[in-house]
Structure formats: C-alpha cells, structure tokens
C-alpha cells in the first residue's frame, strides 16, 4: 500500500522548507515509529542529503539514517524515487525543489496527499507565497484530493509585520494553518548537531511543541 | 485593522487593491443629466422681446433721474 505523502513546497528559497521537512518527519516518526516514516530530498540543493551524511557521522544506524528517519536522495528521477519511497514507508515527507515552475515539483505534488507552503513574515516572501498558493490551487484541479495550507514560519512575536501577516494571508487561495513556527535557535542548533528539535531536550522543547501542533492540524489528529 | 495590515494586504495585488486617488485632484467626470426635449417648455414671446423695446414694462424698482 502506498504511503501518505506530505510535501513541503515553496517558490522561494530561504523560507525554512528543508528544516521544516526534517522536523516534521521527525515528529511523525515519534508518533508512528521511525521505520514507518521516510524523508525524500527532492531539492536539487540536496540540503537534507548533506545533513543526513553529516548526522550519520555522529549517529547510530547505517549511512543515510539519521537515527530516527531514513533520508532518501531523489536523484535524477524524483518522481520514480517518490514511488519507491512510498512503497517502503507509510508516511513520506517530501522536500520539494524551490520552484513550482519545474515539472518535477508538479509531478511530485500530483502524487501528494497534503502540501505545506512555508512563508516568512516579510513582503517578499508574502508575494512569492501568493504565487505558490495560486500554482497549488491550479494543481488541485489535477489532484482534487490534495490538501494545502500556508504555514507562517520564523515568526518573531515582537514584530508588527509578523502580527500583520494573518490578515494578508487570508486574501490568498490557500488557507493558513492556525499554528505558526517561531524563529528559534533550536532549529539551527539541531541541524548542526545532526538531530531534530525533539532530541535537543529542554533546548528544543518549545520548537518541538510547535512542530507537534502543526502535525496535529495537518494530520487531523 | 492597522495601517500595516492594510498595506501588506494591498501589496499582494497592487493593480487590484491600489488605494483610490484623491478625489479633490480629479476633474469632474459626471455626465450632465439628460432631460427629454418635451420636458422643456417653449419660450414665451414676451421673454423673447428686444432689450430696448419701448413697449416693455419698466422694472418696478427701477428709479429714473428727474
């Protein structure tokens, strides 16, 4: 039976897409068991594959294993790679290429069950997010079962711009999650330490709580 | 709603949500009302008399020097 696919996609780079994908996969692994969750690195930048190699140096498990979630490099044919990963895992998180103009992303989203579109609280990111939301809305004609949400990432509670985002996002064609993810050092520290925020102990507690909230909304549980 | 929210929302689709220009600086563009031709009464002959017509009655408040 093919696995459930949660894609993380954005037209614009630098919105925390890969970091979110990794921590969402780690959160799913905690809920359902590590062997049930796979992470597909379909971003040509290969950030997660690089990170997995880095993590494997200090983590138990075979190469490509991060100690919790298996990271699969998409290679030259991301679509075929997704099909393979879907056969191996009940849950698959996909770090999509940072462009919806690419045919690759369209094919990946055609197989996805849900997609999260991270957006930073800044005008440039909002505009890019608007284009992404429009492209996803068009893709849903071919994949009507695709659920899509915007996720405000790297929120700074003291910033007026962060607070003003919710109303602006309400104008877009894709709904925004009620959950947001704050800008936290824990997300960056976890990458460097080769772990997820769940494994940072007290340092990652609030970040892990936010990822759990996102998963509850997305998975409906 | 704050001005920042308004500005951020308007920035998504600048062409669609641009603020309206100041009405005071715009020329009047309202078309004059159309009145049916038969709604305008024909001018009376008295009203069309010559300005120096001796038969025309003087203005009642006009005062002539002796």
Would you kindly provide a written description of the structure presented here, covering whatever features stand out?
- The complex is a heterodimer of chains A (about 220) and B (about 70).
- Chain A has about 220 residues and is an alpha/beta fold.
- Chain A contains eight helices and six strands.
- In chain A, β5, α5 (about 125-140) and β6 (about 145-150) form a beta-alpha-beta unit.
- The longest helix of chain A is centred in the middle third of the chain and has 17 residues, at about 125-140.
- The model of chain A is unreliable at about 60-65 (pLDDT under 50).
- Chain B has about 70 residues and is an all-alpha fold.
- Chain B is built from two helices and no strands.
- Chain B has helices at about 5-10, 15.
- The termini of chain B are far apart.
- The interface of A and B includes residues 127, 130, 165, 168 and 172 of A.
Short description, anyone?
The complex is a heterodimer of chains A (221) and B (66). Chain A has helices spanning 17-32, 47-58, 78-88, 103-111, 123-139, 160-169, 185-192, 205-219; strands at 4-8, 37-41, 70-73, 91-95, 114-119, 147-152. With 221 residues, chain A is α/β, with parallel strands linked by helices.
List the helices and strands and how they pair.
The complex is a heterodimer of chains A (221) and B (66).
Chain A: E1 4-8, H1 17-32, E2 37-41, H2 47-58, E3 70-73, H3 78-88, E4 91-95, H4 103-111, E5 114-119, H5 123-139, E6 147-152, H6 160-169, H7 185-192, H8 205-219
Parallel strand pairs in A: 1-4, 1-5, 2-3, 2-4, 5-6
Chain B: H1 3-12, H2 14-17
